[in-house]
Amino acid sequence: MRFMMLMIPGGYAEAAPDVRLGAEAVEGMMKYNEELKKAGVLLALDGLHPPSEGARVSFKGGKPVVTDGPFAEVKEVLGGYWVIDVRSREEAIEWARRCPAGENDVIEVRRVFEMSDFPEDVQKAAEGFGELKG
Fold first, then answer.
1. Under DSSP, is residue 41 helix (H, G, I), strand (E, B) or coil?
2. Is the pLDDT of residue 132 over 60?
3. DSSP β-ladder status, 106-111 and 80-85
4. Is residue 55 a contact partner of residue 69, using CB atoms and an 8 Å limit?
5. Edge-to-edge strands of the sheet including 80-85?
6. What digits encode the pLDDT tens for the residues 30-60?
7. Given this model, what pLDDT does residue 81 score?
8. Pairing label, strands 2-8, 106-111
9. 3-state SS string over 46-84?
10. The pTM is what?
């Protein structure tokens, strides 16, 4: 089963565009990432720049509207993610518990849809999309 672990760093919603983690925090995170890799469960990972550098596209009234960051109404934002392949939800949660996250950080663990999770008609509609099917 694939799971996405979403890092929600405390205070990242208000972070300046040039904010960067310190060497000690990066070293701890790299050791954790190496553990995931050595265990053979890591499929992908990336860190994200703060929302002050981002943009959001909303579709009110069916028309795209672009809003540049930072986003005043947002309290929690993604700072990065891992995609892991493990046997169970409990194993995914155990990996999240091992992360060297900060006191105000949160990791949300969510299962990734597999094509087999959908009814046959949906699977048939997705035929021909190769890797996009999941």
1. coil
2. no
3. unpaired
4. yes
5. 42-47, 80-85, 2-8, 106-111
6. 999 999 999 999 999 999 988 888 898 999 9
7. 97
8. antiparallel
9. EECCCHHHCEEEECHHHCCEEEECCCCCCCCCCCEEEEE
10. 0.83
Q: State the average pLDDT over residues 75-102.
A: 95
- Angstrom distance (rounded) from CA 63 to CA 74: 22
In our burial notation (b when 16+ CB lie closer than 10 A, e otherwise), range 51-69 reads bbebeeeeeeeeeeeeeeb
The first and second tokens of residue 128, run together, are 């021909």
Query: 73 and 34 in contact (C-beta within 8 Å)?
Result: no
φ, ψ at 71 (rounded to 5°):
-110, 110
Helix (H, G, I), strand (E, B) or coil at 125: helix
Question: At residue 13, does pLDDT exceed 90?
Answer: no
CB 112 within 8 A of CB 83: yes
Q: Which of 79, 105, 75 has the alpha carbon at shortest distance from 13?
A: 75
Give the whole-angstrom CA distance, residue 45 versus residue 80.
Answer: 7
Q: Residue 46: what are its φ and ψ, rounded to 5°?
A: -160, 150
What distance in Å separates the CA atoms of residue 18 and residue 50, rounded to the nearest whole number? 8
